[in-house]
Amino acid sequence: MAVTGCSQCIKYMLFFFNFVFWLAGGVILGVALWLRHDNQTSTLLMIQFENQQAPNTFYISVYILIAVGVLMMFVGFLGCYGAIQESQCLLGTFFTCLVILFACEVAAGIWGFMNRETISKELINFYDSAYVKGVDPVDSPTKQAAVKVLQLFHSTLDCCGKGDDAALFTRGALCPDAKPVDPLISTSCHMKLKDLFTEKQYVIGLAALVIAVIMIFEMIFTMVLCCAIRNTPAY
């Protein structure tokens, strides 16, 4: 233990923030796994219609989150060990990893903001393609497949129809639990899909904001501690 006074305080503060960072990585990993195996999203994204899979852009984002969570846990451990050992090499490596992670998080945040409605729009278009076939008055194998897709959407989201017409609402078998037809109180599947992914985007955005703040403090403390170690006579 070579650093003393304020530098020693910064050392333990850095250790604390790194421990929080490590825990945050575990939380992000847990949230990502929850998003991956969430019943609603899993059911909707496993749907196939006319040999086409539902859009999987959401899963790509989730897999990125899983990788980020694992990387954060590794970097957090590296920072904790480097702070306790007062190793400039480990702290320098930790600082470099933090800068790269922070830059990736900012880039991902900008991309996510610009494409925040892409996932819901892709699923809405997928739903609409099944909707057109499902309300076709001519019975066919394609229509029967479309009806099954619509029923799965409706039962999963507790919705029925697009909300802009009443054609589908006249077919009670397609609505969840065959509820009475009432366009005024029926819930649009378009709105349900938007709300479903908007809620998950808020969770991801809040987690990213908290992590970004922690990373900024960690970078500051790491630089201060490295300077203190370098100026310590023992080193």
From TrEMBL:
Keywords: Disulfide bond, Membrane, Transmembrane, Transmembrane helix. The chain crosses the membrane at residues 12-35, 56-84, 90-113, 202-225. The keyword Transmembrane applies. This is Tetraspanin. It is found in: Membrane. Coiled coil: none annotated. Pfam families: Tetraspanin (PF00335). It is a multi-pass membrane protein. Disulfide bonds join C159-C189, C160-C175. InterPro entries: Tetraspanin/Peripherin (IPR018499), Tetraspanin_animals (IPR000301), Tetraspanin_CS (IPR018503), Tetraspanin_EC2_sf (IPR008952). One of its GO terms (cellular component) is plasma membrane. Belongs to the tetraspanin (TM4SF) family.
